[in-house]
Amino acid sequence: PATAGARAGAVGDAARLPLWRDITSHVPPGHHLSVGSALEALASLRGSSAWPPSLDAAGLEWVVNLGAGDGACTPGAHFDPANCLALQEGTHRGLFLEGDAPSFSALQSSIEALGPAGAAGHCALNVYVTPETIVETVAAALPTSEPALLKVDIDNADCILVRKLLEVFSPVILHAEINPLFPPPLVFRQRFEGQEEDIGEAGRLRRLARGQSVSGCSLSALLEDANVRRQSAHLQGGSRVAHGGTLPYHLLHVEYANAVLVREDALEALRVAFGETSASTLDASDAAKWRLGYLCHPLARHLYGREFAARLDVRALADPGAPAE
User: Global pTM?
Assistant: First the structure.
């Protein structure tokens, strides 16, 4: 294995995170940064010249989980980085939102199992949210506008909730579910179903039963909604003077049906730490990262039968020679 710390002395021994070197010389390499590794690397830069002044160090202790489920941290398609960081690894404080009553009960049990001292650092809300209520709900419980992580997965037009939240909050990393069948630059955005009968678990199951091919948001829609009213630091007079709350988000990588976005100042710091040893920090197009994270994923043609149900050969949409129209 190679090490991230070998790229830059500013990272130091504490940030020598294991990476697997691609001995085949393939470009881009196959290694993606986990959310935890990215946050650990950023924390290790504190006090060095590579630390972005626009990063709020106090906010880095918080993660927000919109759709926390039962609080489980399990590998595979249902991996939840917010649950893992806050409830299993214990490295962060968590704000958890979950509407389903049985799942919320299990979530509470997971938090209580941490003991009085561990549970005191977390906040769990049993609530369903809409684009009209999400900002007020989170703002009332979160003591920072710049948490380390915002994870969104409620199976109801997640990118619309992201758009609302990022008008007020500026998480360092965003982890959100996408509809991976639509490659960049195609924009697909599900209409948020906000009627009373659509909000609860029964509504969620009806949406899934209609088919995952017509649900959620495409990667380009998520990027579009995340960057409303945001502008690159280089257009604001330089990365050292820009405020974190105004900086845009860039695609770190795609994890099958999830996209991981990172704020511009944090991305620059991660590139100091990891350079080109990770596919996440390579200077590659959104389409190339979508291909690596979804189209070329071994399970893309099989898991959940998405493409079969859609009667769609995604390779046709991904053909770079095909016009976007």
Answer: 0.87
